[in-house]
Structure to design on (361 residues):
């Protein structure tokens, strides 16, 4: 993968910019859905929330031209597979009036864009809920359940290249020139160097399956009872070792205070309870969490140059990732051995039934 070509195109190419009237007319014709529209913030696509007159809500997704149709079909297949496994934690695909899983939309004589509709999942974003160790543990268990369902999923489109593919983290070295802060650049260079020398090789020896690959708090839903109820936005889904799933999610469970990894510990314990981790997977967690944080920082600094200052997704990312560097420094200072010991106690406790483990999960 070369991040200066097809994988960067998804960010650098302007997302679709259809007028709401055009979208509404096309959706009414193709899906027989009518109602009021509001635009949603998106990195690569143009998305809308459609609320019908009877109160139902749907997400309208218009895919950017940088995304191959095979990638779109892959995402649709992922959602269908999870639903077929009996899980209700993901949006359902809404078929067209002709029974197709997607349609197209055009404007005047312009290019043809892929148009699809999915159901709106009820719940609050995890980012809007007060995080506790109980919520983090529920998050881990629910993510494990979805990954177990995806373990049997096979699809021709699962080999898509992506800017957020941690398996190819070292390829982001070409973007380091955009990291003008010397302190940040020094830290992320160290992380990428270790990935090149050992982490990437160990990762390549693990079994691979399709994963969500972006279970951050903006893509996780919580219901009124405080249970993790769903996952949205499968745009970064791909085939990879499942430990990348955990490391990616854990990188967003950072917090301050006396115990900055308390939520990560509870999250990992919850996942391990549903789907036990191997020693090989567990040994990579420290480095992979740091790798995800480094990828976030590199792409963030590059995005500052690539996006206009008033770009809504750019601003949203700046606000969300403002403490990523601080947490990377914390983990680096804590060290691999201390981090592993800290988590080993809780993982062992889950397997052995210790009081501490039961309290956390």
């Amino acid at each position: 993968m070369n991040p200066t070509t097809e994988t960067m195109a998804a960010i650098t190419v302007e997302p679709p910019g259809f007028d709401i009237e055009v979208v509404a007319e096309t959706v009414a014709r193709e899906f027989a859905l009518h109602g009021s529209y509001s635009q949603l913030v998106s990195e690569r696509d143009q998305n809308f929330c459609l609320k019908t007159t009877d109160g139902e809500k749907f997400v309208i997704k218009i895919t950017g031209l940088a995304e191959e149709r095979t990638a779109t079909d892959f995402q649709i297949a992922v959602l269908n597979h999870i639903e077929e496994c009996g899980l209700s934690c993901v949006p359902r695909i809404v078929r067209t009036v002709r029974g197709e899983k997607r349609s197209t939309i055009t404007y005047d004589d312009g290019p043809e864009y892929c148009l699809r509709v999915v159901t709106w999942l009820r719940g609050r974003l995890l980012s809007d809920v007060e995080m506790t160790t109980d919520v983090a543990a529920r998050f881990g268990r629910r993510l494990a359940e979805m990954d177990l369902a995806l373990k049997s999923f096979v699809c021709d489109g699962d080999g898509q290249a992506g800017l957020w593919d941690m398996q190819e983290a070292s390829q982001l070295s070409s973007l380091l020139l955009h990291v003008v802060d010397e302190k940040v650049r020094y830290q992320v260079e160290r992380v990428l160097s270790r990935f090149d020398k050992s982490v990437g090789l160990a990762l390549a020896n693990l079994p691979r399956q399709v994963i969500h690959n972006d279970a951050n708090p903006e893509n996780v839903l919580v219901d009124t009872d405080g249970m993790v109820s769903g996952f949205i936005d499968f745009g970064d889904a791909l085939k990879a070792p499942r430990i990348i799933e955990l490391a990616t999610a854990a990188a967003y469970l950072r917090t301050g205070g006396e115990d900055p990894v308390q939520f990560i510990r509870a999250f990992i314990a919850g996942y391990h309870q549903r789907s036990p981790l191997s020693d090989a997977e567990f040994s990579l967690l420290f480095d992979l969490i740091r790798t995800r944080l480094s990828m976030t920082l590199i792409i963030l600094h590059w995005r500052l140059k690539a996006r206009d200052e008033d770009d809504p997704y750019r601003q949203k990312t700046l606000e969300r990732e403002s403490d990523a560097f601080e947490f990377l420094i914390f983990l680096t200072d804590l060290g691999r051995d201390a981090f592993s010991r800290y988590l080993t106690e809780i993982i062992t406790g889950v397997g052995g039934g210790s009081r501490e483990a039961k309290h956390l999960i």
About this structure: Residues 155 and 316 are 32 Å apart (CA to CA). The longest strand covers residues 113-119. Residues 351-361 have pLDDT under 50 and may be disordered.
